[in-house]
Design goal:
single chain; 74 residues; 2 domains; 5 helices
Length: 74
């Protein structure tokens, strides 16, 4: 319960102006499989540390996990 509230606040802060329904959707998606999002975050951090830009690293990692993300979002 508290974890969901905190996650919702972080999403709101990071994605200002996002409608409440979309914030709830993101929180639900992350709640379904938090391990994959932690894994993605760790992989992005590793690529950024190796010299890639944050945007390039994020795109590369998201493409690598595209099938898993699509499965979660359906």
């Amino acid at each position: 319960m508290i974890k969901d509230f905190l996650l919702k606040q972080v999403v709101k802060r990071q994605l200002k102006g996002l409608p409440e329904s979309e914030v709830d959707r993101i929180v639900d998606i992350v709640g379904k499989n938090p391990e994959i999002f932690k894994k993605i975050g760790d992989e992005i951090k590793a690529k950024v540390k190796s010299g890639r830009s944050e945007q390039a690293a994020a795109l590369e990692v998201m493409r690598a996990h595209q099938a898993e993300l699509q499965k979660i979002m359906q």
